[in-house]
Amino acid sequence: EAGVTQSPTHLIKTRGQQATLRCSPISGHTSVYWYQQALGLGLQFLLWYDEGEERNRGNFPPRFSGRQFPNYSSELNVNALELEDSALYLCASSLRGREEQFFGPGTRLTVL
Amino acid sequence: GEDVEQSLFLSVREGDSSVINCTYTDSSSTYLYWYKQEPGAGLQLLTYIFSNMDMKQDQRLTVLLNKKDKHLSLRIADTQTGDSAIYFCAEISPGANNLFFGTGTRLTVIP
Fold this sequence. Notes:
Chain A is mainly β.
């Protein structure tokens, strides 16, 4: 069974640009979560999508947004990139009604 | 808000047992988790324990939960060099479904 996949593996952008990160959940999983792992800040929850709806949001500004598609895959968009957005962005998925979250390998975003 | 704390570093000799400790604050957490992160990789779910359990054993891994002290530990028996990684404990916020992670403990296994 394939795990959570994320693309691209690495992404390099400059300040002010927009970044789009993609995630495909494990087959059968309907919930997708996004986390940021920034140096010195640890792992922080960003967004939770289930059945196409945003269910919960972490303490991040509105320029962090996303969506979930009918096939349950998801996109994370980061607008007006800032240097401190450089981080590993991790996507996780879970079955409906289950709390165990399974993570993908992450997308490393570097903002120059 | 939730606060999950771990010591930052642990070194053990190959073949010894490792014990990684974690304290948490949210007494309403239903599940507590241990994840492993190898260099340059994502998080691997190692094991989890339901909040009404005291102990869970899974091959070389033993999880102990002390709800009164809000203390969680992960014991790795017969630690191998392949166990070298960062270990995160995490609690989940019921209903909100987001994981709160500790700072991570970097385990170094000395051959």
